[in-house]
């Protein structure tokens, strides 16, 4: 039974008489449908394009976007990014030979290395996908929440990163998906698309990384299907340029007895938003969400998550932390802004479930802001659920204690900030990535 998620649907928006959106129309016109693509993909793209033509970019008058102003995105003229020469792609040692690289949304075989992939695992793009895999059964099949940027991604989908793990295959080596945005003379946009299928009893670790230089717009969608008794450990690192725009969705469907964990790290982007949407479709399903957002200067980062438990004995645990403002105690002028909205749905059918959600926020500058809204919607009567949020600053007593032990004020502040973030970073299952994120995240505002 599918849970009903209370977003505005396409039909509702259409009935409201919303006129054509010039920004979306401009992007849509640049998304040509290639004739050499499979017929089923062309049909899906055409259907999505039809909806995009009828919808509009959200504004702060829309409840789900009231803290995130997209006017700066709409005011920028973007041209579709084309494949360009990129060198020196940084890889992680654990996945040096299980790496897929996409430049401006297009697969780059010369930058990728898949030599260490074991039998029973496919990682590549849509064009090389073996015929035995029925991708059309999974592509764009997640429950529709009326998200305009997902429609736009589907309408402009030219290439797809595909990771497919066969039944009962345990993948010891993480797979590293690298998405690079490379601009030339004009602001560009790209729309990376990822599809991950873990069949019954499969287990894998996935690292999804976004980066780039210059002014650009990345509109990314990742779909993950976790089969019965399968497990997926997913690390998502967003370190876009601080002049860029990033909007992403991670849509996950879990079958009975499956396990899914996402470790989400948001560091870059002038404006960024991530929408994790997890649907538990089987009993005894586990979902863990660990998030860390660090923004400074004029950055805005928005996280809107949904977890829907639809069967008995489901478990979900979410901890999302935000560090907002400048680390330097002398220059605390940041107007950085973080947004968190987490929703957990527990319908009547989801008896004997356990759901916990906590958002903790650390403000480092007087003008920095955080808007937090954890939500629980429960209609089942035999459940254990909790949610909460905290917003605080560094404690003067703690800084005084550390200074009394010989640390400078800057060192004392940095130590407390590092300790706050470490709880999330330590959840990442790839050791070298922990070290990399520690160096980038905790040093980005020094």
Helix content: 10-25%
Overall average pLDDT: 89
SS field, number of helical segments: 8
Helix/strand/pairing class, anyone? Answer: alpha/beta
Order of helices and strands: HHHHEEEEHEEEEEEEEEEEEEEEEEHHH
Mind summarizing the main beta sheet? 11 strands, mixed
Distance between the termini: 50 Å
Overall description:
The chain is α/β, with parallel strands linked by helices. The protein has one domain (10-441). The protein has eight helices and 21 strands. The strands form two sheets. Strands 1, 4, 5, 7, 8, 10, 12, 14, 16, 18 and 20 form an eleven-stranded mixed beta sheet that branches. 45% of the residues are buried.
Quickly list its features.
446 residues; alpha/beta; 37% strand; ten-stranded mixed β-sheet; eleven-stranded mixed β-sheet; disordered N terminus; 8 helices
């Amino acid at each position: 039974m599918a849970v009903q998620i209370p977003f505005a649907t396409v039909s509702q928006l259409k009935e409201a008489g919303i006129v054509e959106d010039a920004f979306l129309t401009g992007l849509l016109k640049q998304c040509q449908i290639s004739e050499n693509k499979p017929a089923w993909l062309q049909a899906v793209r055409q259907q999505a394009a039809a909806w995009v033509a009828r919808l509009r970019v959200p504004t702060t008058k829309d409840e789900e976007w009231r803290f995130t102003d997209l006017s700066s995105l709409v005011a920028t003229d973007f041209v579709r990014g084309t494949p360009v020469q990129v060198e020196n792609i940084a890889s992680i040692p654990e996945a040096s030979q299980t790496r897929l690289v996409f430049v401006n949304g297009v697969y780059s075989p010369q930058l990728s290395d898949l030599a260490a992939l074991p039998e029973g695992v496919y990682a590549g793009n849509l064009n090389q996908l073996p015929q035995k895999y029925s991708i059309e059964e999974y592509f764009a099949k997640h429950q529709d929440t009326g998200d305009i940027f997902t429609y736009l991604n589907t309408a402009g989908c030219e290439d797809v990163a595909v990771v497919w793990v066969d039944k009962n295959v345990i993948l010891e080596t993480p797979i590293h998906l690298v998405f690079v945005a490379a601009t030339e003379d004009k602001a560009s946009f790209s729309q990376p698309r990822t599809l991950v299928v873990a069949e019954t009893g499969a287990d894998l670790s996935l690292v999804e990384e976004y980066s780039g230089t210059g002014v650009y717009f990345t509109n990314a969608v990742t779909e993950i299907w976790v089969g019965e008794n399968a497990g997926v450990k997913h690390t998502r690192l967003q370190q876009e340029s601080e002049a860029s725009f990033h909007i992403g969705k991670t849509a996950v469907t879990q079958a009975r007895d499956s396990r899914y964990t996402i470790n989400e790290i948001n560091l870059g982007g002038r404006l960024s938003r991530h929408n994790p949407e997890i649907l538990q479709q089987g009993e005894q399903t586990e979902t863990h969400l660990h998030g860390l957002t660090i923004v400074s200067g004029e950055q805005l980062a928005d996280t809107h998550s949904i977890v829907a438990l639809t069967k008995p004995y489901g478990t979900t645990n979410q901890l999302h932390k935000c560090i907002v403002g400048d680390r330097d105690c002398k220059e605390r002028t940041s107007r950085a802004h973080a947004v968190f909205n987490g929703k957990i749905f527990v319908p009547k059918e989801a008896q004997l479930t356990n759901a916990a959600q906590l958002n903790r926020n650390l403000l480092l500058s007087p003008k920095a802001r955080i808007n937090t809204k954890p939500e629980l919607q429960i209609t089942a009567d035999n459940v254990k659920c909790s949610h909460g949020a905290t917003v605080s600053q560094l404690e003067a007593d703690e800084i005084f204690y550390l200074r009394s032990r010989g640390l400078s004020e800057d060192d004392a502040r940095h130590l407390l900030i590092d300790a706050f973030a470490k709880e999330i970073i330590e959840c990442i299952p790839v050791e070298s990535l922990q070290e990399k994120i520690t160096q980038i995240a905790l040093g980005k505002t020094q």
